[in-house]
Design goal:
This protein is of the alpha/beta class. The chain folds into two domains: 256 residues, 3-Layer(aba) Sandwich (Carbamate kinase), CATH 3.40.1160; 92 residues, Archaeosine Trna-guanine Transglycosylase, Chain: A, domain 4, CATH 2.30.130. The protein contains 14 helices and 13 strands. The chain has an eight-stranded mixed beta sheet, with helices on both faces. A five-stranded mixed beta sheet has the order 10-9-11-12-13, sandwiched between helices. Strand 11 and strand 12 form a beta hairpin. The longest helix has 24 residues. It is elongated.
């Protein structure tokens, strides 16, 4: 395996709890030591850390499965406690940490996406370790779906990482749920672009489960970044991964990854509407690299303006995303028409293409 220069390490609540009901200080100190060792090996490290809700629940005396409102309150109380824990753990190694709180909208907006990138790269240049977490006090949808796994994949692309490591309370992806099936075997490697059929249940504190980690690993691999799902409970796992030793499940990157702008379109953009196309248009877009013309549009749904991201759909299946040159209202009027007919209907022609191939990502 190559000598990784910049790595993103995601740590879930199941790891940080140490099997208990709150942040486990000895576990954080151990992980900080392993991350510091990676830095001493000449690597830059970005940490995507869960744990704010976990820390806040203990402080507020919240038990069981709290409502969204209680989770937000717990995150508000717990985020500062989480950062103090990381500051204390890294202070033993004389390493400065920086807090970066993000929501999905921060990465869906292209300008804010680039601002986040600049902040993270500047922290790395100054020798600090960014501690990234979702802003769970306001990110309702992200709390519900456990999006820190997906966030780690986006952050890996954001900083041009060479490796994404998702450390969890399991050894990796299994052929079945190892907690229920003793016959389940560890999947050591997933081929580029493959859709593995494996399992692994969510822990007591995590919300994403193995499915979201697999999705994050596949997303990173699609961007040309190898990813590993491995145990954060067993000491030395990170060192083993960086040394190329067998550990966890490795997702091999595709040979021809999407360009950075297309990665943002595919994984971070938030479509404002859907454009349904015919089979011929889909083939032109996916097989011949063509732009989408009005003649290939069959239907329009949602409310979007020119320049907004949209999903491209054929037979109810989303196959691409792109930036639309027409508003939903105008596109509804010209769908199915030839390019030469657009100006006669609208009184103007925003563009020859509905979605230009340079502003499109095939999923």
């Amino acid at each position: 395996m190559p000598p990784y220069r910049r790595i993103v390490v995601k740590l879930g609540s199941g790891v940080l709890s140490g099997g208990g009901d709150g942040l486990h200080a000895p576990t954080l100190r151990r992980l900080a030591a392993e991350l510091a060792a990676a830095r001493e090996g000449g690597r830059e490290v970005v940490v995507v850390s869960s744990g704010a809700i976990l820390a806040g629940k203990g402080r507020l005396g919240i038990s069981g499965k709290p409502s969204v409102e209680l989770k937000q309150a717990a995150a508000a109380v717990g985020q500062s406690r989480l950062m103090r824990a990381w500051e204390g753990a890294f202070a033993r190694r004389r390493i400065t940490v920086g807090q970066v709180l993000l929501t999905g909208d921060d990465l869906r907006d292209r300008g804010r996406y680039l601002n986040a990138r600049n902040t993270l790269l500047t922290l790395l240049r100054l020798g600090a370790v960014p501690i990234v977490n979702e802003n769970d006090t306001v990110a309702v949808e992200e709390i519900k779906f456990g999006d820190n796994d997906g966030l780690s994949a986006l952050v890996a692309g954001l900083v041009d990482a060479d490796l994404l490591v998702l450390l969890t309370d399991q050894d990796g992806l299994y052929t079945g749920d190892p907690r229920r099936s003793p016959q389940a075997e560890l999947v050591s490697r997933v081929a580029p672009g493959a859709r593995p059929e494996g399992a692994g249940g969510a822990g007591a504190h995590g919300t994403g489960g193995m499915a979201s980690k697999v999705a994050a690993a596949r997303q990173a691999a699609a961007g040309g970044i190898p990813a590993v799902i491995a145990s954060g409970v067993k000491p030395g796992t990170l060192a083993a991964v960086l040394a190329g030793e067998p550990a966890g499940t490795t997702f091999a990157p595709v040979e021809r990854p999407l360009a950075k702008r297309r990665q943002w379109l595919a994984f971070a953009s938030h479509p404002k509407g859907r454009i349904t196309v015919d089979a011929g248009a889909r083939a032109a877009l996916t097989e011949r690299g063509k732009s989408l013309l009005a003649s290939g549009v069959k239907g329009v749904s949602g409310s979007f303006d020119a320049g907004d991201a949209v999903s491209l759909v054929e037979a109810s299946h989303e196959f691409a995303r792109g930036l639309c040159n027409f508003s939903a209202r105008d596109l509804e009027r010209v769908k199915g028409l030839k390019t030469s007919q657009i100006e006669g209907v609208l009184g103007h022609k925003p563009s020859d293409e509905v979605v230009h191939r340079d502003n499109m990502a095939v999923l």
